[in-house]
Design a protein that fits this description.
about 425 residues, Urease, subunit C, domain 1, disordered N terminus, alpha/beta, 2 domains, seven-stranded mixed beta sheet, four-stranded parallel beta sheet, 16 strands, TIM Barrel, globular
Amino acid sequence: MGAQIKPVFFLKLFILLFAAVLPGLTAQYPQAEVDRVVAIKAGKLVDPEKGTTETNQIILVRGKTIEAVGPHVQIPPDAKVIDLSKSTVLPGLFDAHTHLCMTLKRNRDGSSYYITTLMDPTPYRAIEGVANARDMLAAGFTTVRDVGNAGNYADTALREAIERGLVPGPTMLNAGRIIAPFGGQFQLQPEKQDLATPEYFFADTRDEMVKAIRENIHFGATVIKIVVDDQKYIYSTDDIRFMVAEAHRDGLKLAAHCWTEAGAHNAAEAGVDSIEHGERMTNEDLELAKKNHVVLVGTDFTEIAASRNSFPSLHSVFVDRLKRAYQIGVTMAFGTDAFVSVPGETRGTQAAEYVDSWAEAGVPAKDTLRAMTINSARLLGVDRERGAIQPGLAADIIATPENPLDDIQAVRKVSFVMKNGSVFKNE
């Protein structure tokens, strides 16, 4: 072999190349300048955490960040003024349980989640993610947590594309490949045991669990998602506790898919960061979740959504559990699990309709709105960056014609969307 090239050579070459292209890169993004100033005149301004509304407020945005909020904020002469004096202004919404890179398609023979994941390759699913991310943002969802089902890390590609400004979309946390006992959520055949990969990462031993978590992190996951109980064998409390500790050691939170009473009990006892679905939870397990500071992301299917997902009888089960969880005082974050293609609707409009279940369960609008904003922000670990309209936080701001505190259905009529200080929608 020839003489070895030292790593410093590549570093110097990179610096020279970067210096050459930097002027061209910065010239492409003039709107990203930190001194851009926007003043929003808010007729009504909602604070979801307090459940209060202030009138005639001014929100001053500089670059990507909220600089000042109040009735007497001085508007600089060079500021662009956005008049929302006839609207209600509030923080951008959160969906803490999305699958942006998967769309279940209906046909005359019904549909199969299994077939969808087999037939749609990862590149196509990344493109699906672009379309769904755009539609979620248009509906007012400025932050989402994508909990897997993205093939071979299509969700990482989507998140990075959004962060780099290549495509519009919400701020995104992503789970990569879902970790599960052998089989994942599929029933496999002995001669075709690999059909569930890369959709799932099978982990049945402690070594496999560590490897799955670390491999996910290596390939860009920012949250860990496990399936506890979609097989006859389920993860034990000790299994789950072990994976929670490993994820936390690496700085990530862990979400646990629980479809059975036993699975939800194990997850609540293990102290996961969030239980996904949990529709079979007993009052005792809801109390346990509350005690262990486990957030419930109930994906509380509306009657229409439950029918779309081929389990119409479960709607009443979800609503009953939602009602009991609220009465017990479990911390809840808004998540939808919407992933079916519906003519005439977008992923965003489908997600927003889930407030129907909260209303049906008797949850007051102020608490539903809190679940859609600050509760989700805290679960996702981004509450010091976004999730409220306060100085120093990201300018993720939406507006509706009516006040969601008076009628939660107002969140289904978002007329203005700003994300990171840039206007995406203004009707």
